[in-house]
Amino acid sequence: MFPAFDHTGPYIWAAYGLAALVIGGLVAIVLLRARAARRRLERLQAEDREAGH
Amino acid sequence: MPRLSYFANPHRFMAFSKAVTPWLYAGAAVLVGYSIWQALFIVSPERYQGDSARIMFIHVPAAWLAMAAYAGMAVSSFVWFIWRHELADTAAKALAPAGAAYTALCLATGAIWGKPTWGTWWQWDDARMVSVLVLFFLYLGYMALRAAMDTRQKAARAGAIIAMVGALNVPIIKFSVDIWASLHQGPSVIRAGGPAMPAEYLVPLLLGAVGHGLLLAALSFTAMRTDIMARRANALLLKRTVE
Questions:
Q1: B209-229 pLDDT tens trace
Q2: Interface contact B233-A8, CB threshold 8 A
């Protein structure tokens, strides 16, 4: 399953683990913020429609 | 083909980005996934560095994206400064967090690669390392300065100035290994005479870099859409207050 690297294996896994954490975290934060902004806007627009604006 | 200024209208940008962004995420996932699969499972160990050279497939695209994002921020800021296109400021603001994340990743993976290769995590007299650290602080400074301003116009102006002045650091990073002594090797991809790297390494490296570029574009479009939606929501609230 996992490739066998030379003595530098821990450095390689550390680099790729960190990359997954940073890039995955960045994508998650950006998408969650987008979802929150979209929901907030949709809620306000729905309230406006209900109020007859 | 429509001119870029055609998309400077937020309504057109929202329609365009809504259609394009999912494809950018999909393209990024395929290309970055392919690059990582090649890096970890397929390419053979490098002749001198052994397996540690596999870190290159994440470190080098991170370095390129860190510089590309800052260059994009500087160009967007320049467009805002001259023509006052609000969407240009939105783009500059959106690029900063992703650029900072890629710069942090470049610094961290560089340190991790440096230890088994050069025997050190960090070297203060290495111009490439220090100039990338300066880039990271420029990103942090840009975001902190914007956050400290009380109006969007002030934030845009202060941000544009720091982005444009800081852009001087991008060519310094690129040419630092040619000008000053450095632990880093000279250019091996973009150089006169063509890349000094076998295709086995070059192809996944370049495809991975394109994938990270697509991801940066997707993240920036998403962040720009978030900003526009937040402004529309605030405008609705303001309208209620006035009424």
A1: 999 999 999 999 999 999 999
A2: no
Residue scoring higher pLDDT (B185 or B212)? B212
The minimal CB distance from A33 to the residues B109, B215, B226 is found for: B226
Q: What are the respective helix, strand and coil percentages of chain B, to the nearest 5?
A: 80, 0, 20
pLDDT tens across B109-120, in order?
A: 999 999 999 999
> What predicted TM-score, i.e. pTM, was given to this entire model?
0.94
- Interface mutation vs chain B, best among A32, A44, A45, A47, most B CBs within 10 Å: A44
Torsion angle of the four alpha carbons B72, A21, B51, B42, in this order, in degrees rounded to the nearest 10: -80
Which residues of A lie inside 8 Å of B (Cβ-Cβ)?
3, 5-9, 11-12, 14-16, 18-19, 22-23, 25-27, 29-31, 33-34, 37-38, 40-41, 44-45, 48, 53
**Dist CA B173 CA B179 (whole Å):** 10
C-alpha closest to that of B109 among A12, A28, A7, A8: A12
Which of A12, A22, A44 has its CB closest to that of B52?
A12
Q: Which helix (H) or strand (E) holds B223?
A: helix B199-242
Nearest-angstrom CA–CA distance, B156 and B13: 19
Nearest-5° Cα angle at B71, B220 to B174: 130
Alpha helices in chain A (DSSP H): 9-50
Instruction: Tell me the H-state helices in B84-151.
Output: 86-118, 127-148
Residue-wise pLDDT for B75-95, tens only, equals 999 999 999 999 999 999 999
